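Notes from hallway chat w/ T.B., transcribed later so I don't forget. T.B. wanted the structure written out for a chain they're using in a teaching module, and asked if we could keep both sequence and C-alpha cells in one place. Agreed to drop them here.
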Amino acid sequence: MDVRCVNSLVLAYLGDAVYEEYIRIFLINKGINKVNDLQKESINYVSARRQAYFLDNMLDLDFLDEDEIDVVKRARNAKSHANPKGCSVIEYKKATALEALIGYLKFVDREDRIDEIMKFIMEE
C-alpha cells in the first residue's frame, strides 16, 4: 500500500501509539517506579502543547527532511472534528502532525529515523 494514500489522521493514530511507547520506556528507564509519577512526568512529553513545541523546534533547526516536512504539512492541514482540551487548535494540529510523522515513519519501516526523532525529543 502506498503511504501517500493513507489518511494523515490514520498515520497520527499509529504514531500516537508508537510515540507513547517510546516515552513510557524512556521514563521507566529513568528509574521512575510509581505509575502516578510516570503519568505526571509523561505530560512533559505527550501533551499537545509539548508535542507542538517539539515539532516547532525540529522545523526551526531543519531537523526534518523534505519528505518528512510534506507529511507534517499534510497532517497539520487535515480536517479533524476533535475539540482540543487544554491547548489551542494550532497546537493540536501540530501535535497531530508530529504523531502522523511518527506513524508515517513506522509505516515505511524507518525505525532508525524514529529513534533519531525520539532522541531529539527526549533530550529537549
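Follow-up for T.B.: The first helix runs from residue 8 to 29. Might be a good example for the class.
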